[in-house]
UniProtKB/TrEMBL annotation:
Its cofactor is Zn(2+). It comes from Cloacibacterium rupense. Keywords: Hydrolase, Metal-binding, Zinc. It holds the Pfam family A_deaminase. Belongs to the metallo-dependent hydrolases superfamily. Adenosine and AMP deaminases family. The keyword Translocase does not apply. This is Adenosine deaminase domain-containing protein. Residues 158-444 form the Adenosine deaminase domain.
């Protein structure tokens, strides 16, 4: 390990400049709290969706925007890019249509799809016309593509509404020209927010365009790698990794085939496909243990394809102690756990997670918006931090939650968890340390982060 990096990771002491920054951030927080008090705003019980304009106007947010944040380790295909941008971009395509028929339910209202002019089904109108005919149309569509929690007592059928958002854009994102622009934009949004590395839980669908309906799944890998290369011309530090992702509610015979496909892709693109995961609502999907035969078979797949494919499982995205997914993870093969909200109710397991060097990917805004944690001061991540369990800060599906970048999540964590600069540093450097970058990439990424961090500290205290 690089010695500079060790200094940066040394969370027991801060440099003089870092101490000055620590004081400054603490003052900025006090100022926000004092203003909220003056305005009689119950800031801790106000949702992210409502606080967003206040966040954007705060110096704390502007400071976090400039802060190098290392890696975004937990994000999803279909949820990573700003929804407003997507509407604007889709409307530029003459062949993009929106479903607006309230009398039939073949599609969710507001679903965006690509059709040839003579093949448009009933109920769809040209997106361009839809936006032109009504001055509120864009805002209405934005509401349908994003999920917001306006207040903590509002009733939302969270997962039903959440999944509708993905359904509305799912097909559109497999149209290859939009697919390419979507990820280009996603990476640019992250770069602008000083994120240097991203790992996407990617669900492979078949890409199509005006010439072909049946591109092989590798086309997505090929395109994403090409976009990464293009971006590296101006931002050589920026890197992308793909975690092959399937769905928890599918039958194990289907997921078995998906897992094998993941190994095949890993063999072909060993430095780009870096892991495997299963997603979807844990309250209604299959348990992690249901897939035990698959996890056991990974040894054979490893031999067959002569590559290792680590797991990065979502587990414990739940507040219930009856959800045992966390305890069913094959920890030795697993590198990071997505959410793990109920881990704190199993202290022995929490100790094991620590021993096995698994990191918990925490997504504060996602957890609040999907109803798992209301007042973020009570987020389980605080217990993990107090027990020295490694965690990192993530945005999960910022496009669906109505924002982009990672600074909002840092703002919410900092304001609600009494974080210091020591904590921020640890969270940020953890994100590179626990990334799936290979050894030499990680070495480079650490050096870059260290340099950026030093410059950030220096500039922020002037
Ligand atoms: Zn997730």
């Amino acid at each position: 390990m690089n010695s500079l990096f060790l200094i940066a990771q040394n969370t027991t002491s801060l440099s003089k400049d870092e101490q000055v920054l620590d004081n400054k951030l603490s003052l900025l927080k006090t100022e926000i709290l004092n203003n909220a008090e003056k305005d009689k705003l119950p800031i801790y019980t106000t949702t992210f969706s409502t606080l967003k304009p206040l966040i954007e106007n705060s110096t704390l947010y502007k400071t976090f925007q400039k802060m190098p944040k290392g890696a975004l380790l937990h994000s999803h295909s279909g949820g990573i890019t700003n929804a407003e941008w997507l509407i604007h971009k889709a409307a530029a395509y003459e062949n993009c249509y929106v479903f607006t028929d309230t009398n039939q339910q073949k599609h969710p209202f507001g679903q965006l799809m690509i059709f040839k002019e003579n093949e448009v089904p009933n109920g769809f109108i040209k997106l361009k016309d839809f936006l032109k005919n009504d001055s509120n149309a864009k805002e209405k569509l934005l509401q349908l593509l994003t999920l917001k929690r306006n207040n903590l007592s509002e009733y939302i059928d969270y997962w039903v509404e959440f999944e509708k958002r993905f359904q509305r854009i799912g097909s559109l994102l497999t149209y290859r020209p939009i697919f390419k622009e979507y990820y280009q934009e996603a990476f640019q949004e992250l770069i602008k927010d000083h994120v240097q590395h991203v790992e996407i839980r990617y669900i492979f669908g078949q890409l199509f365009d005006d010439e072909r309906q049946d591109y092989p799944i590798e086309t997505a890998v090929f395109d994403l790698k090409k976009i990464e290369k293009e971006i590296q011309k101006t931002h050589p530090e920026f890197t992308v990794k793909i975690i092959y992702t399937s769905l928890k509610f599918l039958d194990k015979t289907i997921v078995e085939k998906e897992l094998e496909k993941a190994y095949q892709l890993k063999k072909k693109y060993p430095d780009f496909i870096t892991g495997f995961d299963l997603v979807a609502d844990e309250a209604s999907g299959n348990s992690v243990a249901y897939f035990n035969p698959l996890w056991k078979n990974m040894k054979n797949l490893e031999k067959k394809y002569r590559v290792k494919l680590p797991l990065y499982l979502h587990a414990g995205e739940s507040c219930s102690i009856h959800n045992h997914n966390i305890s069913e993870i094959p920890l030795a093969n697993n590198r990071r756990i997505g959410h793990a909200l109920n881990l704190i109710y199993f202290p022995k397991l929490m100790e094991q997670v620590k021993q096995k060097q698994n990191l918990i990917e925490v997504s504060p805004i996602s957890n609040q918006t999907l109803g798992y944690v209301s007042d973020l001061r009570n987020h389980p991540a605080r217990v993990l931090l107090a027990n020295n369990v490694n965690i990192s800060i993530n945005s999960d599906d910022p496009g669906v939650f109505g924002y982009d970048g990672l600074s909002y999540d840092f703002w919410m964590a900092f304001m609600n968890w009494d974080l210091t600069v020591k904590d921020l540093k640890k969270l940020i450097f953890n994100s590179i340390e626990f990334s799936s970058l290979n050894t030499s990439e990680k070495q480079k990424a650490k050096l870059h982060l260290q340099k950026e961090w030093n410059a950030f500290v220096k500039n922020s205290i002037q």
